[in-house]
Specification:
single chain; 483 residues; eight-stranded parallel β-sheet; globular; binds N-(aminocarbonyl)-beta-alanine; binds zinc ion
Length: 483
């Protein structure tokens, strides 16, 4: 009779394909058996009446990310951010090692790797490229080969944006060295122009953030990045899609067979631009980019999750405090919107919000929930088949949910180091009770059960989703060696 380290007994096991009543036997950190009436484990976890889901993979979160040229700092450490994520049912995170203009990638990465050693969860990195000089592009092959298989680029933000020529250089380097590319897509010049006009008119309070960057600036940039990716046949993922107009560009590209992937985030599904209207400066809490939209955009996002146009829901966790001189008020308690640090925190609330607003309200089903929060990000970023589902041999990364647990979100009860949540007071149904990473209980009974440093770096090799199609629009292969 096989003896397991741990057996999770009597739960309803859910994957992106199936729902079944089964026990899960765990041995040496991996799933060793799925069946009924499994033999005893050294540890037994009673999951009667509960759901057993693959642990969430948050493939877009800013954790203790260094910044330059701004007084704004990350409130979270790796310890606080990943603890918070674990309490919300997430088991792996992919965060960002930045490059700063004029600098190089490798020293920043080495320093970031040191910081990440305090992680409670398993982790991997996207490399942000802001200045693709020949020297920086020359650093990429070795870093990619080390397991950093994804590159993030920006089409806006003064400090990080690339022009189209630079975008092409990065896409080409990624294609040549087998890396995936993720993109923040907004038209920078249009936003700057609108911002200047709004400022000249004295319209600088938080609601004008959304006016400065309407859906069409996202639509145009998505259209352009799809064209650039198509030109040299490089698969990409478009980050934080917020609008119906953005969705229609992506849908059209996917219908043409292009490998264009896309994600959205809970803030775009749950909040609208109304959140920017809060009393006094409260609206600044909801300043993020792209901006929050209208109910019709939310409907388009839910539909796109149902039909697979959007394949991932990440948090885009941006741990900026609201108060203090290093947060959203760094430039004053009534700073113009253009001076307010962008982004909202959300590692811990990502899964409960999507479960409650999506599954409980009947907008998506349990399989779609697991797909967009775990299985799809694992496949898109090369963590599958080690992570992202529940199957024999996979890491036992699991979240055990009470689907009937009702909670009112309160920042005081969250585990991040940020002083607010944009979801304060929202009622949700469903919350993870126990989180396991590689078979070890990380969170149970409201307490963290592992020390910082338990998390491991996840090196990623080449994987199917990143493979180009081998189709060029002109018939000319710009990557063929010429004689
Ligand atoms: O507003 C946002 N999304 N802030 C975080 C950084 C980014 O653009 O992803
Ligand atoms: Zn972004
Ligand atoms: Zn982001």
């Amino acid at each position: 009779m096989q003896r397991f380290d741990t057996v999770i007994r009597g739960g309803t096991v859910v994957t992106a394909a199936d729902t079944m009543q089964a026990d899960i036997g765990i041995l040496n950190g991996a799933i060793a058996a799925i069946g009924r009436g499994l033999s005893p484990g050294a540890t037994e976890i009673d999951a009667g009446g509960l759901l057993v889901l693959p642990g969430g993979i948050d493939s877009h979160c800013h954790i203790a990310q260094p910044k330059r040229g701004t007084p704004v700092v990350s409130a979270d450490t790796f310890e606080s951010a990943t603890t918070s994520a674990a309490f919300g049912g997430t088991t792996s995170v992919i965060c960002f090692s930045p490059q700063f203009k004029g600098g190089s990638l490798t020293p920043e990465l080495r320093a970031y790797q040191e910081t990440a050693r305090q992680s409670v969860l398993d982790y991997s990195f996207h490399l942000i490229v802001t200045d693709p000089t020949p020297a920086v592009l020359g650093e990429l092959p070795a870093l990619i080969a080390e397991g950093h298989r994804s590159i993030k680029i920006f089409m806006t933000y003064e400090a990080s944006r690339l022009d189209d020529r630079q975008v092409l250089e990065v896409l080409a380097a990624a294609r040549e060295h087998a890396a995936f590319v993720t993109v923040h897509a907004e038209n920078h010049d249009a936003i700057r122009w609108m911002t200047t006009r709004l400022e000249a008119a004295g319209l600088t309070t938080p609601p004008y953030h959304a006016v400065s960057k309407p859906p069409l600036v996202e639509r145009e940039a998505i259209h352009r990045i799809i064209m650039l990716a198509e030109l040299l046949d490089q698969p990409i993922q478009i980050f934080h899609v917020s609008s119906a107009q953005g969705i229609s560009e992506i849908r059209r590209a996917q219908e043409r067979g292009l490998k264009i992937h896309a994600e959205t985030c809970p803030q775009y599904l749950v909040l609208t631009a109304e959140a920017l209207q809060g009393e006094g400066f409260e609206g600044a809490k909801a300043i993020c980019s792209p901006a929050l939209r209208e109910p019709a955009d939310q409907e388009a996002l839910w539909q796109a999750l149902r039909d697979g146009v959007l394949g991932v829901v990440s948090s885009d966790h941006a741990p900026t405090r609201f108060g203090g001189a290093d947060g959203k008020q760094a430039f004053g308690a009534h700073a113009p919107f253009s001076k307010v640090a962008n982004g909202v925190p959300g590692l811990e609330t990502r899964l409960p919000l999507l479960f409650s607003e999506g599954v409980v309200k009947g907008r998506i089903d349990l399989q779609q929930f697991v797909a967009v929060t775990a299985t799809n990000p694992a496949k898109l970023f090369g963590l599958y088949p080690r992570k992202g589902s529940i199957a024999i041999g996979m890491d036992a990364d699991l979240a055990i949910w009470d689907p009937g647990c009702r909670r009112r979100i309160a920042n005081a009860e969250l585990h991040h180091a940020v002083d607010y949540t944009p979801y304060e007071g929202m009622e949700v149904t469903g919350w993870p009770m126990t989180t396991l990473v590689r078979g070890t209980v990380v969170v149970q009974d409201g307490a963290r059960r592992v020390e910082p440093g338990f998390g491991r770096f996840l090196a990623r090799g080449p994987y199917p989703a990143m493979q180009p199609r081998g189709v060029f629009p002109t018939g000319f292969d710009p990557f063929a060696t010429t004689g």
